[in-house]
Write a structure and sequence with these properties.
The longest helix has 21 residues. The protein is globular. It is mainly α. About 55% of the residues lie in helices and about 10% in strands. It has 14 helices and 13 strands. α8 runs antiparallel to α9 and α10 packs across α11.
């Protein structure tokens, strides 16, 4: 086992102990609470799309543990991922769909990875596959329209097309082999949202009440990540333009979304809440690019450095805290990570402030990404 394996395992254990619980105490269920200690009621916000990334991280863990020969731990991670997916449907009043196409696209990506990478640990229940796959695909397809030249609407109001929905949907289309649709969605993104001055992708296009449109110019790290993920998948299948775009995008992320942090390159982050997950998503797809033989070696090296530098910073800035009083377990220790790799946890996540799932899940995702490169 490598050092990065051990670090990823420590992050996985801490996130599960802080946030993983049965849904209303029901057996064979599992969801991640959104904060610790719990500051929100049982039926308060539960952040559907954070659960999708929790499933993704559990799949990462299962793949890593299986590759290292620790199959019991791999099966445990996969079993929790399965239960989380089932519990999402229960918590969501018997449905896997909601009003936001981006939320559903994340859940679809996670469910698809769980199915594809879990063959050695048993298939998903048939009912879960049917609801989480067919229902999500059918519903998201309604947001993938010719309006504004293409792309995917953000939600069922159909007044905003953006990359948070288009990116993960294009990645899913690429992964299931629908390369033409994936390419069309990426082409739309570059035509309408690409900023030639930085090489980065902007957020989306809003439709005003009077029918006019305006671009939302925000640059979010996770949007670069899903586009990079799709480009890498397409490049792997021989699409040369996608390989060139992926090369340029990695260079743009390196040039415009990093700062020096003691000799390491810290990626830009977006605070807490939903933003606490954004950079972890980018790092997940930087690791995919770093592992892809379809990209130039120099690009892969830059992507790998960004993954490892941010993983190093998060690990070096971690803080060990005793949770015995809250969890009722004597001498219980968990590892708490900073929302920002450039700042230590004791400054950016001080004791006494509730710890959010999003920021800890981001750190876990980044450490799993580093472990995936350790070979």
């Amino acid at each position: 086992m490598t050092e990065w394996d051990q670090r990823a395992r420590a992050a996985a254990d801490s996130v599960r102990r802080l946030f993983g619980r049965r849904l209303l105490g029901m057996p064979f269920t599992h969801l991640a609470r959104v904060d610790h200690p719990v500051s929100r009621p049982v039926f308060g916000p539960w952040n559907y799309w954070w659960q999708a990334h929790y499933i993704d991280a559990l799949v990462d863990e299962s793949i890593r543990e299986h590759a290292r020969g620790t199959d019991a731990l791999a099966r445990h991670a996969r079993r929790l991922a399965q239960r989380t997916l089932v519990s999402v449907g229960i918590r969501n009043v018997g449905r896997f769909t909601n009003a936001y196409y981006d939320d559903m696209a994340w859940m679809l990506l996670a469910a698809h990875r769980l199915e594809m990478h879990g063959a050695t640990h048993g298939p998903l229940p048939r009912g879960t596959r049917a609801h989480a796959g067919r229902a999500l695909r059918r519903t998201i397809s309604r947001g993938d329209t010719p309006d504004l030249g293409g792309g995917v609407f953000w939600n069922t109001a159909h007044d905003f097309k953006n990359l948070p929905a288009t990116g993960p949907w294009s990645l899913f289309r690429a992964r299931i082999g629908d390369l033409a649709r994936a390419e069309a969605l990426i082409d739309w993104s570059y035509t309408h949202l690409h900023d030639p001055s930085t090489g980065l992708l902007q957020d989306g296009i809003e439709i005003d009440p009077d029918g006019g449109t305006r671009r939302t110019p925000h640059i979010f790290t996770y949007n670069q990540g899903t586009v990079l993920g799709t480009l890498t998948e397409l490049a792997t299948r021989g699409h040369r333009e996608s390989a060139a775009r992926a090369t340029d995008l990695v260079a743009s992320v390196h040039a415009h979304l990093t700062t020096d942090a003691g000799g390491r390159l810290a990626l830009r982050t977006h605070g807490d809440g939903d933003g606490g997950l954004f950079t972890g998503i980018l790092v997940r797809y930087l690791a995919l690019a770093a592992r892809s033989p379809a990209l130039p070696s120099a690009t892969r090296e830059v992507a790998a450095r960004l993954v490892r530098d941010n993983a190093h910073l998060l690990w070096d800035g971690r803080e060990s805290r005793s949770m015995s009083k809250t969890l009722g377990m004597p001498s219980s220790q968990v590892t708490v990570f900073s929302p920002d790799p450039a700042a230590p946890a004791r400054e950016s996540q001080p004791p006494g402030i509730p710890i959010e799932l999003s920021t800890q899940l981001q750190a876990w995702t980044i450490l799993e990404a580093a472990a995936s490169l350790s070979e």
